[in-house]
Each structure stands twice: as C-alpha cells, then as structure tokens.
Amino acid sequence: MELTAAPPLEEGCDVPHLGRLAHARRAAAQAEFALWAAMLDHRDEARAALQATEPSRHRAATGLGSTVLDIAQTLAVSELSVEVILSTADTVRRSLPALWRAFSLGAVDAHRVRTIHSVLTTAHTDTLIGLLDTRAVDYAATHTPAELRAWLKRLRARIEPDQSTAEAETARDRRRVEIVHVDHAMSWINAYVPTTIAVAIEKRLATAARALPEIDPDTGELDQRTQDQKRADLICHWLTSCEGTQTTVRAEVAISIDARDLIGLTDGPGAVRGHGIPVPAAWVRELATQETTLFRRLVLDASGQVLDTTSLGYQPPGALRQALQWRDGRCRVAGCQVPADRTDLDHHHPWERGGPTNAGNLRSLCRRHHRMKSHGHLTAHHYRPPDTYRERVLDQTSVEIDLVHLQAA
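RE: above sequence
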C-alpha cells in the first residue's frame, strides 16, 4: 500500500485554517515517528557496538539496559516507557511495514499505531495480521481512535471467532462488583459484567431517569437534579430498596447478527446496536433460545443498505425509525459516538420545502449536531456513511437477522 498523498480526512479542508490544521496534524504525527525512529536507531547502534565488544551476553544485556536509561533520561520519561515504545516500534516495523510507512508519512499518529499494535499482539492468524497492515491502516487514517478501537474489535471477532469467544468466556468468569471508597465521603461502585447486561442497565437507567416527574409529587418542588444525578439516585434506590430477585421492568438490548452465524454455519459475532461492540455468536444463540427474545427482519439491498420506505407525514413510522437506527448506528456526524436510538431523525431536505419522509432523506443526528445543522453550520464533509456492523473481509454474501433480547433489568 502506497501512501504518498494526504489522508482522505483532509478532503473538504477548503477553508485555509482547516488546511493548516490538517497539515499540522500530519506534521505532529511525523514528529512522533521521527522520535520513535531515532530511539530505534540509537538502540540498534548501541546493540551492534556491544555485540562487537562484549563477548559476554549478560554484560551486553546490561549495557543495553544502560542505553535505555540514557534514552529515558534524555527524554525525561521512565525506562519502562522507553522499553514499551522500542518494543512496539520493533514489532510494527517488522510485522506491519505498511503501517510503519503510513506512520512515517503522518497518515496515522502514535496513538493509532499503538491501538493497532495491541491487536497484533493477540492475533493468531496470518489473515488477521495481513488485514491489520492493509484495511486497518486505511481505516485508522480516516477515523477517530474510538472508532478504530471498535472496528478492530469487530474485525478480530470476525476473523478469529474461536479465540475471541474463549477470551470472552474467560472474562465473563471474572465478573464482579467492586466498591472503592475515595475522598469527600464518596465511593465508586463498579460492576464488571457482560456487555449485553450493561447495555440493558444503561437503557433502563436512562429511560427511568427521563420518566421521573419534573415536579416532586410529595413536596411540589422542581426537581433540579441532572440526568447523571438522577441515574445515580435510581441505582442506589434499586440496590437498597428491593430484593433484586424479580422485576417487571425489561430493557431492550438489540443485536445484529448474520443469519449464518446465528444458525451455526459460521461463527462471526453479533454487534450491539448503537455501540458496535462484538458479542460472541454462542452468546447470541443462547439469547435466541430465551422466551423473552423477539426477532425482527430488515430487508437490505445488495450493498447492505436498508431499502427505502416512504411516509406521507412528517414523523416517520415506527418501522422506518427502527430501520434507520440500524442503518445509521450512531449520529451520522463523523466521529460522534451518540447511539442512534438517542438521536433525532433529521430531514436532509427540509420537509416543509418538499423533502420526503423516507430513508433516503432521513439521517440520525444527536441533538447537538441537529441544532448545528438547523442553523446552517454543517456541510457535506461533516457527515459519515451509515454504520457497518459486519466486516466484509472475506468473499461472501450476507443475510442479516436482527435479534432483540428483552433483558430483565
């Protein structure tokens, strides 16, 4: 892969100030590469000199340790930080040459290189390693670090399903609750639980907090708590005021999965709607057998897009709204991570000017970016394409089933 021009993210930087920002971003990444390369060169030269003059392997290793110390003191960082950078740079330069070149050109920065390297250290197949040095490099150059991390998780779960499932099972065995007491008479309650459960808890808390009355029925006073404060109070009430063994409240956890993965022909992961977090196929199959699980089918075109549905009114019907949430995944502004089920459906061409209420004219925008659009502050280059949950890295056609599990909260 040759990267000789500016990364695609710089397209649309027709405003001079944005062009300078894009150039500065590239220069900053190239400066990080120059530092890493200089550290490698200094270490390699010192190693060669020691191997030529020190017959004892132990003395040579000790001398190399002093080289790390010299680098650390020069850069005013810890020796461990130097060792981590040298190890990462060594591995990337040797195993992912295209990523190393993209780093040298400033197409990706050190943070993205570390993110891809972290997946390389767990890779078991040449297929995944090859994709990390091709598709992952292209993706990293045009997406935020958070998007890159989520994409890499889905990619690995698709390419190495057995290893990913085994790791998920091991992690599930470590589920626990931790209570940490901190300053100012406050404490943290942390729960390490499966993502499907955590999403259900999050949805139930958000729904219950929004449903609280603005006026306290007992005192008649205005409830001035923030949404965060309301959620904290609710979870404390639930944990201290009921048995926790039965509940009549259920929260919806929506998961997208390829039909062949669901029936066991292949073992690609499902993906939690709005988050893109991969879930092992075995876990999705387990959910599918429960009586509270509903199945919803979306009709997709050949490229995986939701087929158009049109309504004559301003408000889209429920089926179209749900289809668009699946299509978009998140707010359609590039880099925004607000899940689609917490966004507004915006008419690209205003409805009052004849814009239709159909899939082609609607897109999910969070309230903040919806306001920007309404006031004319968003242009075409601010938007990203609809979300993709499956990584089409192998030659295959795809039929998707959408599974909705009603998780008891």
